[in-house]
Prior knowledge:
Blueprint: H1 2-5, H2 13-47, H3 50-70, H4 72-85
Helix pairs in contact: 3-4
Amino acid sequence: xxxxxxxxxxxxxxxxxxxSRDTLENWQSEFLQLLWQVGGLAFLLFVGSPQxxxxxxxxxxxxxxxxxxxxxKKGKEAIRELDLQYDGRHTDEPHAHRN
Length: 99
């Protein structure tokens, strides 16, 4: 409107460049944020967050309980041998591998 009032032809170049730059900056920000969230989640699942280990701990506790039910003495002995064989694999959870 100002350009028409001054008798100049309308120019869209400056507006188009500024609008394109702002749009691309916004898209870049959103893309990087999404990439960070997906990458972070994948990393946490890869290293094994406590939430991802929950089901294996539960299964291991159930197997330990079954071993104790079949034969309490041999079950405890088998659990102890497995713990020694796979040292560091058990967790510090209260339900894990009680003698």
